[in-house]
Design goal:
The chain is mainly α. The protein is built from nine helices and three strands, in the order ααβββααααααα.
């Protein structure tokens, strides 16, 4: 969110990390610094630039009115041999003030009786059986019988079958994405989900590489090469079609199976 009242990063916290993952509020300096760092992570040479972004207002001959509201920060990135391209991802204070404001949408607030959209005096009091309890006690009664129990059991069995079928379909689709899709993201996300069940969780300020490198040797040897390929894909648009995702998956599952007994392993795998 763009704001001129963003708090400074606390002592000991990285400026870009704090902006992107915690505070998530700032002005052009925040946005341009983050964009510059992210370009460099992707292997794209970039440089941070400060100056003024002038509007067409106040021009008179060869003179231009420049105010503090036009002070700005942006970046330039290298697109070729000594070819620098401007990239700007935030407005100036002046542009932000000129942007059209969104109209607030009025909604009902259950805690505020004045905001209710219906009049309780005119709203019928309907009970689950379909009767109007506004002034009548003629509520129909339903007698239970063996037939009703059979219907309930059949319904539960059908619901269980549908839930199992849906689970199997989702499982097949997930495996197809992991093994046959072009992206490494589904496999990487699956591995993080599995590790969380073993209380192995990436910190909010850690990069994927830092998280991989701090693991024990066997797990590190599985995660780190995958993260390198993931960085190539995510930041550089380079996808390695020769990587054996199924073998990485099997090596990962073999490692998890060693951590605890088989029963716990399968329970954590299913739930």
């Amino acid at each position: 969110t763009y704001t001129l009242n963003a708090p400074a990063a606390p002592e000991g916290k990285d400026f870009v990390d704090y902006f992107l993952f915690e505070n998530k509020r700032g002005y052009c300096v925040y946005f341009a610094t983050a964009l510059s760092v992210m370009c460099r992570i992707a292997g794209i040479p970039s440089r941070y630039v400060e100056g003024y972004k002038m509007s067409n207002n106040g021009t008179s001959g060869t003179k231009q009115e420049v105010t503090n509201e036009m002070a700005h920060a942006w970046i330039e990135y290298m697109a070729g041999d000594d070819i620098w391209v401007l990239a700007d991802c935030s407005p100036t204070p002046y542009e932000n003030e000129q942007a059209p404001t969104q109209q607030a949408v009025t909604t009902s607030d259950p805690s505020n009786p004045n905001s209710a959209t219906s009049d309780p005096k005119t709203t019928p009091n309907v009970n689950p059986t379909g009767g109007n309890t506004g002034g009548s006690n003629n509520t129909p009664t339903i007698k239970s019988s063996g037939t009703h129990k059979v219907v309930v059991y059949s319904s539960l069995a059908s619901a269980g079958f549908i839930a199992l079928a849906a689970f199997l379909v989702l499982l097949i689709r997930r495996r197809r994405k992991m093994f046959h899709g072009e992206s490494l993201v589904p496999l990487h996300s699956y591995m993080h989900k599995r590790l969380r069940r073993y209380k192995i969780i990436k910190g909010s300020t850690e990069t994927e590489k830092e998280f991989a490198l701090k693991q024990e040797e066997e797990l590190r040897n599985i995660l780190y090469p995958l993260v390198n390929k993931l960085y190539d894909e995510f930041y550089g648009g380079i996808r390695d079609k020769t990587i054996d995702k199924k073998e990485i998956y099997l090596a990962f599952e073999r490692h998890l199976k060693k951590r605890q007994n088989k029963l716990v392993y399968y329970l954590k795998k299913c739930y």
